Give the backbone structure.
Amino acid sequence: MIDVFLERRLARPVAPDLVRSMTLAAQGCFDLHHLAWQGSLLARDGRRLLCHFQAPDLESARLGLRRAGADVGSLWAGTLHDAPGLEPAALAEANVVVERRFAAPVSVAAIQALEDAGAACLQHHRVRFLRTLYAADRRRMHCLYRAPDAESVRLAQHQAGMPVTRIWACQRIAQPAASTAAP
């Protein structure tokens, strides 16, 4: 199984309950293609959504999501990279997403080195790095943080000299019986 991510920009704001019910309604399509929803991050304004799935391969995910009616234009395979020593329960506290896009492929290690060099900036703003979702094409990543707010993350990232495409506050959506690990 691989990790697969679907990014969605929504024309109208949606509520967490709608995202959860739509995902559960698509379960038949997901089962048919062996696609397992791991959870989603919904922007606080309800207009941006990042969904995490596990699937046998990217094409299975593409088929299952298309069959469920999703636009798969921003579907990508990737890997998860957690902060050292991170306890799984801490992932449920993720409340800010930093999107990074790159013209040329980058390594997780290169970005992590920048993050490590800027650790004092993160601490000063009470920002804690939790996890990176790293695209297989090495041209995008989404980093999850726990922070007082998105502005704290924006300031810390700027002061640390980190590359940033977009920063947004989020809330986690999961099945009621699902684990508390964030995507």
